[in-house]
């Protein structure tokens, strides 16, 4: 009897330990994107010509991260995420040399009330509108960004010091919002807030979002909500879109027709009191119109295309024209070698018109010396 009691007690202890283990989890994950890129015209140091380069993150930024959860009971969990970005070609940190520059947050998640998180996170345009655009991580992402990523759909700037709420799914409806502190005695200098909503019903999806950043061009508070040096380091060729007030609103629709998914995206960005393009207390406006499509030709092969027309207005500058226009065409083919690994090819063409403006495709390696630029890329992605 004593032996049976000891055995039962040992079994109960093991069961309890297993249950405790099942209630908590930590996952290591990552993605490596490496490729070769050709750009027909890059202007660097007064000389210009074709550029062939080994690249990291042509489509998806190379990364690794830790995410975890702990069951607190009653449908409540404690959660966290620490995600690093890096360049696979040289091993350097991304996001302006941050250890966990892509994401770093902790919070609580409820099956009934939604999720509340604190830390470095994505804004609502990225959460709700970007997944339906060419900048989605399942689409062209980095190279398909709108000029200078003016609407931040490609998350060139992530939001620090942020408190964020994300709702549960109410019959296809989701919503959320974010507020990021300036961490400064001047409360309004370099702070941000954002809100968004999405709806999904079968093959139909729709989303809308808004982002406002106050004082993003400040040089006195670099520890606030955004760091413009980060956007320059993320592929915008050193160009920074900063302003006393930056406002972006966007909306997107998509519909699936069997193996084909087609979508439309519109975003409107305003920059008030900016020094960009040599403006003195000037302003900028960007209206981006994007149509996109993705076709699953076979279970392994998918084709994608996107076209963006950008109509802009710049005031307060004599060096550049007041009304530049951008046209960009993007093509992509992805072939899956397995569930985790694929190879891809991309081609992008951009044309810009307006006095003083030159073409520049995101991640191309630099601006063109003319109003045209062509980029071709081949690469490999593997996930773990």
TrEMBL record:
It is a multi-pass membrane protein. Its main location: membrane. It holds the Pfam family Porin_4. GO terms for biological process: monoatomic ion transmembrane transport. One of its GO terms (cellular component) is cell outer membrane. Residues 8-353 form the Porin domain. Gene3D superfamilies: Porin. Keywords: Cell outer membrane, Ion transport, Membrane, Porin, Signal, Transmembrane, Transmembrane beta strand, Transport. The keyword Signal applies. It comes from the Bacteria. InterPro entries: Gram-neg_bact_OMP (IPR050298), Gram_neg_porin_domain (IPR033900), Porin_dom_sf (IPR023614), Porin_Gram-ve (IPR001702), Porin_Neis (IPR002299). Residues 1-22 form the signal peptide. This is Porin. It comes from Paraburkholderia ginsengisoli. The lineage of its organism: Bacteria, Pseudomonadati, Pseudomonadota, Betaproteobacteria, Burkholderiales.
């Amino acid at each position: 009897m004593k032996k049976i009691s000891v055995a039962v007690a040992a079994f109960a202890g093991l069961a309890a330990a297993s249950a405790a283990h099942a209630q908590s989890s930590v996952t290591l994950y990552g993605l490596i994107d490496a490729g070769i890129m050709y750009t027909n015209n890059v202007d660097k140091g007064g000389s210009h010509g074709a550029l062939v380069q080994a690249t990291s993150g042509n489509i998806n930024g190379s990364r690794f991260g830790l995410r975890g959860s702990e069951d607190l009971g009653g449908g409540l969990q404690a959660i966290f995420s620490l995600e690093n970005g890096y360049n696979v070609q040289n091993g350097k940190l991304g996001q302006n040399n941050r250890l966990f520059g892509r994401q770093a947050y902790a919070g609580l998640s409820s099956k009934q009330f939604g999720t509340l998180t604190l830390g470095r996170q994505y804004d609502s345009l990225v959460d709700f509108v970007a997944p339906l655009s060419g900048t989605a991580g399942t689409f062209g992402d980095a190279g398909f960004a709108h000029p200078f990523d003016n609407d931040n759909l490609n998350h060139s700037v992530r939001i620090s010091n942020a408190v964020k709420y994300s709702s549960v799914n109410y019959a296809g409806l989701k919503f959320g919002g974010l507020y990021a502190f300036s961490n400064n005695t001047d409360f309004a200098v370099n702070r941000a807030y954002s809100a968004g909503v999405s709806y999904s019903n079968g093959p139909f999806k729709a989303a809308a979002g808004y982002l406002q950043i106050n004082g993003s061009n400040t040089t006195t508070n670099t520890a606030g909500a955004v760091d413009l040096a980060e956007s320059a380091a993320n592929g915008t060729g050193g160009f920074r879109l900063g302003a006393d007030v930056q406002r972006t609103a966007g909306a997107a629709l998509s519909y699936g027709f069997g193996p084909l998914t087609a979508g439309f995206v519109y975003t409107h960005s305003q920059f008030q009191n900016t020094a960009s393009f040599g403006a003195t207390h000037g302003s900028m406006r960007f209206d981006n119109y994007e149509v996109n499509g993705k076709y699953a030709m076979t279970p392994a092969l998918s084709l994608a295309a996107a076209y963006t027309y950008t109509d802009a207005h710049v005031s307060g500058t004599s060096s550049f024209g007041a009304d530049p226009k951008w046209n960009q065409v993007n093509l992509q083919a992805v072939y899956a070698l397995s569930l985790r690994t694929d190879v891809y090819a991309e081609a992008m063409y951009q044309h810009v018109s307006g006095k003083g403006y030159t073409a520049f495709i995101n991640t191309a390696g630099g601006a063109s010396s003319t109003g045209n630029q062509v980029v071709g890329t081949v690469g490999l992605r593997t996930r773990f």
